[in-house]
Amino acid sequence: MKYLYIANWKMNLSFNQSINFCTQNGEALQQLTQHAEIVVCPSFIALKTVADIVKNKSIMIGAQNCSEYPSGAYTGEVSALSLAEAGATYCIVGHSERRIYYHETTDIIIKKINLLYHHNIVPIICIENTKEDLLQPIFDTIAQHNRNRVIIAYEPVGSIGTGIIPEQEHLTTVFEWLTQKTHSLLPKRHVQLLYGGSINQNNIKELKKIININGFLIGGASTSFENLKNMIT
Ligand code: PGA
Question: Is 77 an active-site residue?
Fold first, then answer.
């Protein structure tokens, strides 16, 4: 099975830089989709233009966030409906940067997951630990939606942007647990379990040895096409 690579450009690539990334590397990215599923997540403002550039390619577009409300007077927010109309088929939710800097709670994350599924956008659900009582409401929410595709990204806070990757043994345990949990709670779904945090072209080989990891959520290292290519191939 192909690995799933999510390029989370955060606010690292500007509008022009995001456009240039895709115009300059569109063909090469397309080639890489022979080996991998690739989702690029530009900022809101670049999303539609990037989606248009890669339109006839197998590269998929994700948003980095969405509003917890369907529509209305919420200055500065972007709805799941708008994201779908602009060409997003994926959206990151529950990222620790949103939880920490924007005080997003599990309740807010659940509202976002519901809206995304409603608009046929696959949520890329970030979790930072395996505390069962904290995760149960999220699993329950996914279970309520009869959607085949489930993407969960384990991103320990201490590993995001720090250069520190958890021990192999810890990751093996976490991903075994997640595999068992999703098998029992979300049977018959196409579940993809991702690791995220300080992934780069040097450490990804070791991560690929952990059998229950199905893909990667990559921040900083995904903003360089060369790096991204080296991680995929
Ligand atoms: P990083 O970010 O790869 O820059 O550590 C990962 C993420 O936040 O998704």
Answer: no
User: How confident is the model over 75-107, as pLDDT tens digits?
Assistant: 999 999 999 999 999 999 999 999 999 999 999
Question: Residue 90 corresponds to which tokens in the numbers above?
Answer: 């994926």
User: In angstroms, what is the span from residue 200 Cα to ligand 1's centroid?
Assistant: 10
First to last CA, the chain: 14
The number of beta carbons lying within 10 Å of the beta carbon of residue 150 is: 21
- State yes or no: is 27 an active-site residue: no
Whether the full predicted model's pTM is greater than 0.90, yes or no, is yes
CA of 181 to the centre of ligand 1 (A): 24
User: Tokens standing for 133?
Assistant: 């009582």
Which residues on adjacent β-strands are paired with residue 196? 217
d(CA 215, CA 201): 14
Burial 86-125 (b: 16+ CB within 10 A, else e): bbbbbbbbbbbbbbeeeebeeebbbbbbbbbbebebbbbb
Ligand 1: residues whose CB is within 6 Å?
Answer: 8, 155, 160-161, 196-199, 217-221
Cα Rg of the chain, angstroms:
17
**What is the distance in A from the centroid of ligand 1 to the CA of 73?**
32
Token pair in block for residue 109: 């994350």
